[in-house]
Every structure is written in structure tokens, then in C-alpha cells.
């Protein structure tokens, strides 16, 4: 009613936005002829209006908007002026041009909001004018209305229907015209041919339904508007108004649609049936809905109709009066519980989502409205207030003194006798089950329902709900339960329903969720759980004061930054960074918080390699985060299922050595050495790479290796060969890792005995013959460092033997062996090549000769 009561009386004139954000006025008089002219749409009017703005903030906003939209607005305003002057769309290309411009703003619809009135009002007044003529004219006018509705519906998809319907005409006399237009659209035959451009039928129906969504809010009895009643001059009080019947019949048909008309008709039904003068119509609709839902079958038409009905009922229970809906709540819940058990609900995640949404709104109707006095309330949500308090040095003390905290009050005084209906208990069980659903949209809706219902309960009952939510994090639960539990905890925290006294039970669970990663065959699952856990931490930062969050942040910060720097998924890295940034900003001073936020920003974390090699290294300079980072890499990342991530983690681990060499030379290497012989391929591959990279970094930093450490490092490769870990699955991966390990210990100058030298050289020579080019390149790189370090000083005999062996391989029938030998000869040191440089060059030149393929006997070159 408020929307209709605030409507402007006039239908014509010039439409502008009465704020400083007003763009360019466009004539909205649909009846103006082309010769009459239209209001000026000169873009300079915007600059003139902006110059008079006194508020710097508004002026800055206008400048930004014009910067991004000014050029296109000139095009759009020209097309709009041409449409208004012509009384319709003369050129079909104009519609496509506007659509292509508007579609670019799908992600930034707010940039269009200052221009919406200038676009929507003149077009809707044209639609209204043509609808009035259509009421007494021919159906050809529909061809004029359709292109206009395509433009309006494009704006609906970009900015949302709530932003658009504010500029629809809403005179009382428009109601019958709009219903007549909807009937015309409903009865016309649909074009089923596939075509790139829209025919405008669907868009017209949606726009008219939204128009009626506003018109049915008129503050008069609808029977007083229906002219058919005045013509018949009589109507029984028990009869339904004919105009309402027409709307209901069409909306019921659209409820079984698979398109956007289903949602629009549900919104229209919600506004219509919740009017005070629609009690009989509401009862009739509820009976019809119950009949359809209880008779649902596996037919796909019934599936769409069920979704439409449940969605409409959810909208009704959202905006309806509590007193009017309380009688219908039990029956609606019974129907909801029956449909939830059907095969259609099991197959349709969308239907389950709306059933969960409807169930929670039934519960809210069944519970008495209340604002829980036990809810956590922070002193101030202002960043300025938080920073000023922390600057004065009295932030924590003032918070502790003023904070209304459940831990410091007598909970017995907050306990109230509350009779919870059995229906509500069943609905809460349904929502807790919904948190385990296989689809995210169902879990998300269930989490919001848990938060809304908990706000209406007593502290004791809310504790029971929290206990049930924490059970979702049991070891036997799947990833869906963990995700749903995190969403529910976030909703409770946002609403102040998760009290600080519950932190000891909640925080350990959130820390586990931040690292949730379960291996499933050749991949893992859990990114959505980690993302939701970061959302919980973000909600903590917004909901609680620094006094209550100080100890919690000390636990969460290392884990948040670990996820922000080392998570495999970019959305998880950014979510954790956003949560950390929110806590730094909301909670006042935090050790190194601003420096870390500047380093781990949204764009820096976009690249995984940059996050591992640069951002993490920058954050790890602070001792609070160095050891959690190292532990994450040692325990999780170098054993990850993805090969590229293991290789990157080994390099990232070596970058942290500079901050504590003793830790990595002692604890880290001792932990890694046994893992090089693990039966798990990922573990031994990552451990082998990490051992070599750490050893090399220690040498570069000037660390002196003890005899025992050198013996342990030199014995890794022989132990791997003895265990025959080159064979079977993963042998190729281990060959590359071993080659890199040999290169690292060679550069690090690890001493080797003669037997080990011979063994490592045989390993590299064997890898040279491998057909995999990556293994060959890794082996060549290792020889480049191994030979100068360990073999140059062994004498000419070793040098001659190595050169002779590689020259002999150039005649090998195996192409891979010849390629490997040529690569190896290219990296031999000067002292080796100086002995036989002429034979080596001659042999390499002869190996470059193109070979003639020998064909089988009896086949000529031409035949081949």
C-alpha cells in the first residue's frame, strides 16, 4: 500500500530524478507527436547539474558514473528520444543496440541506477498509451509494445525488478488496461522457432506481470475498480471479483512455466492474495495449491508447477500478515513435508530450496515475534569509532565496560517460558537436514532459516540448535555437512546469536574447516568448505568487539593467512584474505595487520605462483606466521595430489629457510627424510623435491652441513633405487624428482663417496635414455651441476669414459637415447671437452645428417 500511496498523480510531463545524480531528462509524454519535440537530452545538462552539487561525495559519485557511462548514455538517450518521438521502435536494430550496451553492466548494475528513471518512465508511458489503445483497438499494437518491453526487461535482468518497478505508472485506471494486455499476451500463439533475437513475447509477459505487481497495491477495494461489476449492476457478496479471477487464472497457468514468468506470477500472487479484501480468494488459492501439491506425479509439467506453487507460497508467507496466515500455517507445513518426501523433490534442487524457504517462513509465522534480549550487541559498528578508541588506548576497557555480554549477565533472568509448537521443532529438523543437502542453494537457504528461527528462541533453545549444528562437523559427515554447518555458524554470528561463551567449541571446528581437503581419487574436494569457513571468520570480524575477539584472532589469524597464501583455489585465497582484512579493520590494532593486508591484497593473490613465492614470503618474515606456514607446506602441500602444486610447494618451502635456518636444517629435514621412501607416490615425490630445495637454500645462505646431514642427503637416491620406486605407477614422476634432487645436492656441495657417485651417474645416464623429454631435460640439468662438482677432479680417465659413452649413444637405434646423448655433450665442462673436442664435433655433425628411410622390398618410393 505504501508504494501506491506515494505514487505521483500525473502521468505525463518530464521525468527526472530529484537528486544531484540526475542524468538527462527525457520526455515521458507518450502521446506527444514527433512534431511537438521532446525535452532536451543534451549531455552537457549533466555537467551543469553536477557543477551545482554542494556535496563533494555526491559530486565524486557523479563523476565516476559519467566516466564509465557517459559515452554510451549519449547513444542510449539518442535512441530513446527517437523512440519517444516516433511513438514506438522504428528500427529493430535500436533494441539490439540498447540490449548490447546494458548487458555489459550485468556485474555493475548500480552504475545504471541514476539513469533508470530517464529510461524506464518514458518507455512505460509509451506502453501505457498503447495499452489504452489496445483495449479498444487491434492486436497489431502488440508489435509496438513488444520491443519496448524487451528494453525494459533487459534493465530488469541487469538491475533487478525492485529498482525498475519504482518507475512504472500506477494510476488506478491502469489496472484493467494491464490485465487486458496480459490476457492478449497470454492468448497469442508462441513462436517456437529457434532464433537469435527475441520475439518479445516472454519479455512482454514479464513486464506486464511486474506492472500488475505495483497496480494491485491500490488503496481501494478492487471491486470498486472493476467496470464489469458496474455494468452488470449487481454482484453477490460471496462471489470473487471478475478482475481478480482473470488475474488468478493467468497466474496459475504461468506457475507451471519454466521461464521467468513463473517467478513474476508468484510475486504478483503474493501481493494480490495478501490484500485485506482478498481473504476468500486467498482461502480458495490455498485449497487449490494443496490439491495440486498432494496429487503431484513424476511428470515434468507437475515438477515445474510444484516449483511455481511452492515459490508463490514462500512469497506469500514472506510479505503476508501474521494474523491472516497463522491459520494456514499448519496445513502448509503438512503439504511441504509431504512434497519433500516425493521423488520430484529428490531430483529437483530448486524445489527443495523453495520448500526449505517456505518451511522456515511457516515457522516464523508460528513463533511469536520477539527481539532477543540475550543477543550479542557490539558497542559500535563504525570503523572510525574503533580506530579512535584504540588510538586513545581505552578501546578494550571501554568495550568490556559497555558490552552487553551474555557471559557477564545472569542468564536465568533471560530465560523465558516459551511453548515451541511441535510444527516448529519439525521444521528445525528439516532445516538441519537441509544443511546436509547435496546442493549449495538448499544448504544456503537452510542456513539462513536456522538463523532467522534461532533469533525467535530462548537462550536454552538456541544452545540446542548450536549443539545440533556442531554435530555436522563430526568425522563421519561429508563435505556437504561441513559446508552447511559453516554457513549456519556464519548466519548465527552475523545476527549476534553465537555468543562468546560458545567460542571454545566453535573455533576449533572453524580451524579444521579452513583446512578441509579430502582426497577423492585423482582429485580432492573441500574448496567450498574452506570458502565458507573464511566467511565465518569474516562474520566474526563484523559482529564482535575487539575485547571478545582478541584471543580468538590470535588463533585464527595464522590459519587465515595460511589459506590466503597457500590454498590451491583462488576464491579461497581471496576469501581468507578478505576475512583477515575485515578483522584487521574492525578489530582495531593488530600486529602487522596493515602491512599484511597491503601485501596480501585481492590482485596479488590472483596468481598461485605469486602467492607462494612472493606474498607468503613477505608475510612469513613475522615470527607469528613463519612456523604455521612451514607446517602447512610440510604436512599438506608437498604431499598434495597435484604434481605442479608439490613442485611449487617445495620451492616455496625453500624461500622460508632464510628466516630460521636451524629450524629447517633440523626439524624440517628430519621430518622429510623418512617420507622419501613412503609408499604413497605424492608423499615421496614432494619429500624428495623439498629435501633438495631446502639443502640448496641452506648452502646458499652459508649453512655448514654436518657429517650426519651429508650422509643422510647422499643416501636418499640409493635408498629410492634399492626400494625400486622407479617401477610401477609414478616411476616417471620420481625420475624427474630424483634428477632435480641430484642437481640440488650437487650445487650445495654435499660430499659423496665413490660408490654413491657412480650410482648417481648411472641414474642420470639411465634417465637420459628415457623417451620422456621432461625427464631428459631434468637429467641434463642435473649433469650440468653433478659433473663439475664431483667428476672434474677425478682425472682424464673418467672424462674420456664419459665422453666415449655419450658419443657411442649417438649411434644408438633408440631416438630418445641419441637425443639425450646430444644434450649431455652440450653441457659438459671445458676440462672434459678440451680432451676430445674434435671427435665430439665431428660426431655431432655426422649425427645431423638426414637418414634415408629403408622401404620394404618390392615397394618403390612412388608407391610409398
From TrEMBL:
Residue ranges with Low complexity bias: 36-53
Region annotated Disordered, chain positions: 1-56
Pfam family, one: ARM_TBCD_2nd
Domain Tubulin-folding cofactor D ARM repeats: 350-594
GO biological process, one term: tubulin complex assembly
InterPro entries for this protein: ARM_TBCD_2nd, TBCD
PANTHER family linked to this entry: BETA-TUBULIN COFACTOR D (PTHR12658), TUBULIN-SPECIFIC CHAPERONE D (PTHR12658:SF0)
The protein, known as: Tubulin-folding cofactor D ARM repeats domain-containing protein
Lineage, opening ranks: Eukaryota, Viridiplantae, Streptophyta, Embryophyta, Tracheophyta
